[in-house]
Amino acid sequence: MQNFAVFNSPSNINYGRGAFEAIGTTTAQKGTKALIVSDKMMNKLGNVSQCREHLTKSGVESIVYLGVESEPTDIYVAEAIDMFQKEECDVIISLGGGSCIDTAKSVAVLVSNGGYIGDYMGGERVAKMKAVPHIAIPTTAGTGSEATDVAVIQDTKNDVKMMIKQPAFLPEAAIVDPVLTKSAPKHVIAATGVDALSHAIESYISRRAHPMTDIMALSAMELIVNNITKAYEEQDNIDAMEQMIRGSLQAGLAFSNASVCLVHGMSRPIGALFHVPHGFSNAMLLPAVLEYSKNSAIRRLADLGRIFRPDLNNESNEALAEVAVTSVKRLCKQLDIPNLNEWGIDNNAFESAVSKMAADALESGSPGNNPKVPSQKEIEELYHVCFNYNFTSEVGLK
Fold first, then answer.
1. CA 63 to chain centre
2. I want to staple 149 with a disulfide (CB 3.0 to 4.6 A). Which of 92, 110, 170, 325 is the partner?
């Protein structure tokens, strides 16, 4: 039995304003022709052309795949692989949100190791060959995927979100520039911001947390809690976004090494069956799951309570854990996070899917990292609580 901790990260991370300019020199160290995995919005904003200009100045050729339109799917992965191979590329750049990054991660692994992306779920197939060099450039302050060895890909045939975690999926380099987040609309800032907060909280309360991940998780929680409402309400506040994207990066480093818990386990089936974006589905679940988990994570949730309310530092851990849960609820309300019903999910369709979603959540393995490990029945009950969840209430599932 392994009794030591492991902390993995990209080999180099460039972060801060202007870091995007390093894409040319960084890529030139790893290859001569790049496939850029991005989306139409990044192209429209000029970020793709700017990326290509930096590459050209460093002597790197490039082609572009803009097929990513929503949550990442096995179809996007197959299309991008086909383009990579036909164009004889030797390095991959992802430019966009988590969907672009996770698609590129999958391409990088499959080009070297072969097979279908679903083969790698649950460790059924392990990537033994080194992945193609992948440089990840996030444009949202949320997923932290640029710093993780996790890819979440939709199996379009079976309506399952596959959570794949293997060292080969970790990008070789990350470029984190807050200037690239300036175009994000308010609802994206809210969803990705709570997603990043979920990563930080779950990595801190995870049964697999260790001192190195704790450092990153605590810093991430503080950065996000103190800046998310500023970023949401003042979209031109680059200072707030700089702190948010740094918090997202640190949260990514934390959960990649400590793993996520029940929120993410329950979130993926909602995304797979009802096509709710990952950030929103996490935000819809986070308060209720924290209520459920609270009594098994008093001390650690108390630390979160102190971040929200430093003026209550001398209160008991029990009181501060309650502060943490209440503060997360209020934050979601401030950010206009809807519950599942308000999102527009049909009640009958939801009821029919609850059993499958709970089973899929358990199968993912993430609920097993939760401080309070749930049964399938408890997960089903939590889904029901979340469907009409009241973010203003002070009492929820115990």
1. 26
2. 170
Tokens linked to 228: 């998310």
- pTM for the model: 0.94
pLDDT one-digit tens code per residue, 331-366: 999 999 999 999 999 999 999 999 999 999 999 999
One domain, residues 117 and 190: no
* C-alpha triplet 336, 195, 14: angle, nearest 5°: 125
- The angle at the Cα of 364, spanning 360 to 368, to the nearest 5 degrees, equals 110
- The angle at the Cα of 170, spanning 166 to 176, to the nearest 5 degrees, equals 150
Domain count, the chain: 2
Complete edge-to-edge strand list for the sheet that includes strand 61-65: 12-15, 173-176, 134-138, 91-96, 33-37, 61-65
Beta carbons within 8 Å of 265's beta carbon, 6+ residues apart: 361, 362, 364, 365, 366, 367, 370, 379
Among the candidates 181, 205, 223, a domain finishes at 181
- Token pair 């203003």 is found at 392
Asked if the model's pLDDT at residue 395 lies above 60, the reply is no
Helix axes 317-334, 211-233, angle to 10 degrees: 40
**Alpha carbon distance 63, 388 (integer Å):** 46
Of 163, 181, 199, which residue constitutes the final position of a domain? Answer: 181
Give the model confidence (pLDDT) of 4-38 as tens digits: 888 999 999 999 999 999 999 999 999 999 999 99
Q: How far is CA 290 from the centre of its chain?
A: 18
Tell me: do 310 and 380 sit in the same domain.
yes
Domain that holds residue 134: 12-181
Range among 152-161, 228-237, 289-298 with highest mean pLDDT value:
289-298
Q: Are residues 132 and 233 in the same domain?
A: no
Contact 174, 13 (CB under 8 A): yes
Strand 160-165 relative to strand 150-155: parallel, antiparallel, unpaired?
Answer: antiparallel
Q: Are 255 and 220 in contact (CB under 8 A)?
A: no
Each residue's pLDDT tens digit, 84-129: 999 999 999 999 999 999 999 999 999 999 999 999 998 889 999 9
Whether residue 284 lies inside any domain: the answer is yes
Does 316 fall in a domain? yes
Tell which residue, 236, 248, 302, 243, has the closest CA to residue 279: 248
Q: What is the mean pLDDT of the chain?
A: 94
Evaluate if residue 1 carries a pLDDT over 80: no
Q: Mark whether 243 and 380 lie in a shared domain.
A: yes
